[in-house]
Amino acid sequence: AEVAAGVWGGLVQAGGSLRLSCAASRSTFRNYENYEVGWYRQRSGEQRELVASVGNTGVKKYGDSVKGRFSISRDNAENLVHLQMDSLKPEDTAVYYCNAGGLLGYWGQGTLVTVFQ
User: Fold this and answer.
1) What are the pLDDT tens digits along the chain (117 aa)?
2) How far apart (Å, rounded) are the C-alpha atoms in residues 50 and 73?
3) I want to staple 29 with a disulfide (CB 3.0 to 4.6 A). Which of 24, 62, 81, 98 is the partner?
4) In this structure, are residues 17 and 86 in contact, taking their beta carbons and an 8 Å threshold?
5) Residue 91: phi, psi to the nearest 5?
6) How far apart are the first and last CA of the chain?
7) Phi then psi for 34, rounded to 5 degrees?
8) Measured in whole angstroms, how far is the alpha carbon of residue 30 from the centre of its chain?
9) Dihedral sign, CA of 25, 55, 90, 46?
10) Cβ-based neighbour number of residue 105 at 10 Å
11) CA-to-CA distance for 102 and 92, rounded, in angstroms?
C-alpha cells in the first residue's frame, strides 16, 4: 500500500489518549514533504470528515470537534504523520483514515478507534 496506518491500541476509555501513526511509501512519495498529509474519520452513518491535516508549509488544520484535544505532527525524514489524541470522548469513535495529497490523493486502509465510557 502507498499509505499504511499503524496504530497501537484502538480501544480506549473516555478521557484517555491514543496516538496514531501513518507511514507513506518511500517509492511513491519521494517528495513527501511536498504533500499535505493528515487524518480523516468516518463515524457510523456519517460522512468522512477532516480530523487534522498539515500542509507542506507546516500549516495545520483541525476539525472543530477536536481542536484543543488532538495534535498532528509530521516527520518528513521518515515519511510519517502522527495524530496525538487526548481527552478522548465516545463521540470520537470512528474509523480513522490517514491521507496524503488531499481528498483526491492517497488513503490508508482505515483504523477503528473505539472510545468507551
Assistant:
1) 566 655 544 899 999 999 999 998 888 888 999 999 999 999 999 999 999 999 999 999 999 999 999 999 999 999 999 999 999 999 999 999 999 999 899 998 889 999 999
2) 15
3) 24
4) yes
5) -70, -5
6) 34
7) -85, -10
8) 20
9) negative
10) 14
11) 21
In angstroms, the CA 70 to CA 72 distance is: 7
Cell readout for 104 is: 483526491
* Residues sharing a CB contact under 8 Å with residue 64, sequence separation 6 or more, in sequence order: none
Angle at 46 between CA 8 and CA 108, to 5 degrees: 40
CA distance 73 to 17: 16
Name the grid cell of 77: 525524514
